[in-house]
Automatic annotation (TrEMBL):
It comes from Hibiscus sabdariffa (roselle). The chain holds residues 8 to 182 of 229 of the full protein. This is Ras-related protein RABA3. It comes from the Eukaryota. Belongs to the small GTPase superfamily. Rab family.
Amino acid sequence: ENQQEKIDYVFKVVVIGDSAVGKTQILSRFTKNEFCFDSKSTIGVEFQTRSVTIKTKVIKAQIWDTAGQERYRAVTSAYYRGALGAMLVYDITKRQSFDHVARWVEELRAHADNSIVIMLVGNKADLLDHRAVPTEDALEFAEDQGLFFAETSALSGDNVDKAFFKLLEEIYGVL
Ligand code: GDP
Ligand code: MG
């Protein structure tokens, strides 16, 4: 990437969802095009960045990963502060991770800005034989709650860029 490039906007995006759904790998796929098979669980709050061009504007996405604090209510409000977008991730093979999505939406409504754009992400879409969450269930929930929705695979890379670009475009659109 060109270091000299002029940045028009910095968008803070938070990645949330239950532990082990693939948040860190989705982030690594989007920012480095990498997938790490033996990644340790995340320690400490960290963010990664990637600059993208949307409608001639250079947007630096500053994407925050949780500190392995994915237990309900363990993520602090500082994490959400200033966030314009959220990737709310569940694992399509783990029903419980989808059942908890409503709690994560509550957390966002409580701590994040009202205008935050939320993308619901069903990850591990490569594990179709183990699917436990029908696409229609997630779509229905997303429509009810006014969320965008995508199924991704951090492993294959399927839909990861598309989901992030959609989120960033929507944020840009609501600026
Ligand atoms: P986090 O706790 O939500 O950050 O989850 P991680 O990113 O650490 O991933 C948890 C586990 O799921 C790791 O063993 C990853 O290798 C695996 N994983 C993450 N994304 C995918 C995916 O898209 N497909 C498959 N098959 N495994 C994945
Ligand atoms: Mg992690």
